[in-house]
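thought: fold this chain, then report.
action: predict
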Amino acid sequence: MNEDAQYGTGDAIDDILHIYKNLKEGYEHYNNSNYNEAVYVWTNSYEIHCGEHLVELQDMLYDLIY
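observation:
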């Protein structure tokens, strides 16, 4: 595996970790019946942070496949 491929894999792992953390934080609120807070966390994290990681992950996977 070349250095660029390793860097891409590291970025993908980072993206997945950030997405997981955002989903988990919202789920913890949801699980504690704090539904408004869960929706706020999920919406806010997607718009500000998580959405960017999803796009980067999608682009990296597309580059690997094609």
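thought: worth noting. Residues 35-65 form the longest helix (31 residues).
final: tokens above.
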